[in-house]
Amino acid sequence: MKNYLFVCSANRLRSPYAEEWTRCYIRENRLEGDVMSAGLYLTPELAKKGIRTEVVLTENILKWSDMTFVMQEHMAREIAERFPGYRGPVVSLNVPDRFSPSEVDADIPTDITYYEALEYANTPGKRFGRRVFEKILETTVVPYLEVAKREAV
Q1: How confident is the model at residue 150 (pLDDT cuts 50, 70, 90)?
Q2: Which residues of 10-46 are buried (b: 16+ CB within 10 A; e: fewer)?
Q3: At what angle do helices 114-121 and 130-140 cross, to 10 degrees?
Q4: Which of 3, 52, 117, 120 is the most core-located residue (most Cβ within 10 A)?
């Protein structure tokens, strides 16, 4: 059984959403795997805004993980700097901090492609919702889950 970790800035929106989506995918497709999420930062600025990080990334959490997905490339570099002993694979989803689970993607076609979803998510000044984020997860995370399924057989 593989352990999958999702990391974002504060573990408030993106990584918990990715964690739950992946957990549902694993359950619905009768796959094996465990999922967790964590945030990189607990800063005074976040605390002043009343934002508390639910789970802060630690070396033990990284040791638990077989595959780590970060929301942005700079987070992979941060993990490498803060945890130099970690050798597990880290995959960037390229999802900026403008995700809003309550955002209605009414103007997004249901058959949006991965590249369209990435372009939309990375458009400066635009917020994006579940449809865009789920397309990115479906295209980037699911192949790793399916490989783990084949390896387990």
Answers
A1: confident
A2: bbbbbbbbbbebbbebbeeeebebebbbbbbbbeeeb
A3: 130
A4: 117
- Note the pLDDT tens digit of each residue in 24-72: 999 999 998 999 999 998 766 666 666 655 688 999 999 999 999 999 9
In SS3 terms, the chain reads as CCEEEEEECCCCCHHHHHHHHHHHHHHHCCCCCEEEEEECCCCHHHHHCCCCCCCECCHHHHHHCCEEEECCHHHHHHHHHHCCCCCCCEEECCCCCCECCCCCCCCCCCCCCHHHHHHHHCCCCCCECHHHHHHHHHHHCHHHHHHHHHHHC
- Give the C-alpha separation, 83 to 5, whole Å: 15
